[in-house]
Design brief:
Layout: H1 6-16, H2 30-48, E1 55-61, E2 75-80, E3 90-93, E4 96-99, E5 111-117, H3 126-144, H4 148-173, H5 181-192
Antiparallel strand pairs: 1-5, 2-5, 3-4
Helix pairs in contact: 1-2, 1-3, 2-3, 3-4
């Protein structure tokens, strides 16, 4: 079953530990509160990997009046595009970009970034919602029940859901050797090695 909402995901998690479903989040049931906390942690962790559905390239961010590059509140990760930002060595610190070369938050100009955003649970693809719910259910079961047999059963479901998510990623991102930076880096590294 694929949850459409956080409430449905929490109820999937509760069923994994033999608890009755709840009608709303913040129901007061300790197990439901624990399930929601775990779901939020896993949701953020999975989205932090940066998938085609929550990653944007070449996002231009203009500086504030004080020259700072302030990131959106739902930014998990931001990285400066090297080909556009050769004069800075930028890194993310908190909700802003920091210049390691000049030791300042004052960047002073617009910057292009690769950004990974944390989207609302309901806004991510169904295959990602399912994987997050199944993984969170396995973790909740491990913490509350601790059954080795259930762990194995839930882990198998989790691996299947992860394979489906990766298949979805490969289909929707249209990766190929010509436009994938990670592949290019490997070939570039191989091409620059000297043969003796």
């Amino acid at each position: 079953m694929t949850p459409n909402t956080k409430l449905e995901a929490v109820n999937i998690m509760l069923s994994a530990i033999g608890e009755a479903p709840v009608n709303r989040l913040s129901s007061g049931l300790v197990e439901a509160e624990t399930a929601e906390t775990i779901l939020n942690q896993i949701n953020r962790s999975v989205q932090a990997e940066g998938w085609h559905f929550n990653r944007e390239k070449d996002v231009q961010i203009d500086p504030t009046n004080s020259g700072e590059i302030v990131l959106a509140a739902n930014t998990i990760r931001a990285d400066a595009m090297v080909e556009h930002n050769t004069e800075f060595d930028l890194t993310q610190r908190g909700g802003k970009m920091y210049d390691l070369t000049n030791h300042t938050f004052n960047i002073g100009k617009a910057i292009k970034l690769d950004v990974v955003y944390e989207l609302d649970f309901a806004d991510i693809p169904a295959v990602a919602r399912r994987y997050i719910a199944v993984k969170a259910a396995r973790i909740l079961q491990d913490q509350v029940v601790g059954s080795g047999d259930l762990h194995t059963f839930n882990q198998n479901d989790e691996m299947e859901a992860l394979m489906q998510l990766r298949d979805f990623e490969n289909e929707t991102a249209d990766y190929n050797i010509a436009n994938n930076y990670d592949v290019f880096r490997v070939f570039d590294r191989i091409g620059t090695k000297r043969v003796y």
